């Protein structure tokens, strides 16, 4: 079943085109990797799919409803409830502890403080960093910070996780550990994942891979074949 769909998406920065009429379907429960060199438009595509930015042409549909024409408040609500976003550098709030960082999306959505902390501690444990719950980011390694960011992205139990170069700031071993946690917990939750990366080893964790070049997806790969199974676990 298609959960997320793009049709004819165009986006430019000034006179520089980033996306040139991109179309794709994302299937519910799959991990989809979008690969390609730096500057090819893959992060821009992720931002459009996640409602962070609007395409200048084309349409984005989530569960059959068009979302790119929604107001910023509508798209922000989607990112608080239906979508989770994991960035390359985690973007944790430096003044907050790990548990407070993970609880933040729930608190912003109106969840009580005690309930939010309990959920945060549960998710920190699920991604293997319960021991740093009361540490601030400056007291954690890069891998611990990224696992905390993963817990924060998943604490609301989103239907779709958008991961933009999630291991780009980590060494190979630490990146493998974070990817292993990401695949395991999203598989358990049946969370759909859109993963942007320029690294073939990272794409190897996905069910399906699409290649982007100069703002266009490879037409031979942009079909809607049902994923055949998880790799790299």
TrEMBL record:
Ligase as UniProt keyword: no
Any Pfam family: ABC_tran
Source superkingdom: Bacteria
Keyword Mitochondrion in annotation: no
Span of domain ABC transporter: 4-233
The entry's keywords: ATP-binding, Nucleotide-binding, Transport
GO molecular function: ATP binding
Name of the protein in question: ABC transporter ATP-binding protein
């Amino acid at each position: 079943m298609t959960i997320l769909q793009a049709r004819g998406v165009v986006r430019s920065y000034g006179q520089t085109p980033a996306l040139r009429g991109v179309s794709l379907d994302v299937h519910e429960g799959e991990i989809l990797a979008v690969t390609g060199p730096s500057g090819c438009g893959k992060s821009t595509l992720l931002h459009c799919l996640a409602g962070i930015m609007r395409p200048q042409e084309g349409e984005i549909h989530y569960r059959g409803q068009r979302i790119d024409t929604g107001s910023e408040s509508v798209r922000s609500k989607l990112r608080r409830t239906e979508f989770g976003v994991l960035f390359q550098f985690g973007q944790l709030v430096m003044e907050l502890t790990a548990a407070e960082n993970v609880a933040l999306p729930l608190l912003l959505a109106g969840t009580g403080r005690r309930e939010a902390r309990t959920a945060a501690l549960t998710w920190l444990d699920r991604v293997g960093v319960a021991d740093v719950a009361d540490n601030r980011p400056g007291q954690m390694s890069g891998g611990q910070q990224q696992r905390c960011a993963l817990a924060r992205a998943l604490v609301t139990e989103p239907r779709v996780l958008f991961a933009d170069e999630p291991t780009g700031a980590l060494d190979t071993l630490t990146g493998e550990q974070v990817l292993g946690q990401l695949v395991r917990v999203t598989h358990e939750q049946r969370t759909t994942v859109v993963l942007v990366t320029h690294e073939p080893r990272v794409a190897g964790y996905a069910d399906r891979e699409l290649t982007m070049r100069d703002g266009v997806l490879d037409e031979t790969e942009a079909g809607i074949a049902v994923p055949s199974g998880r790799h790299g676990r």
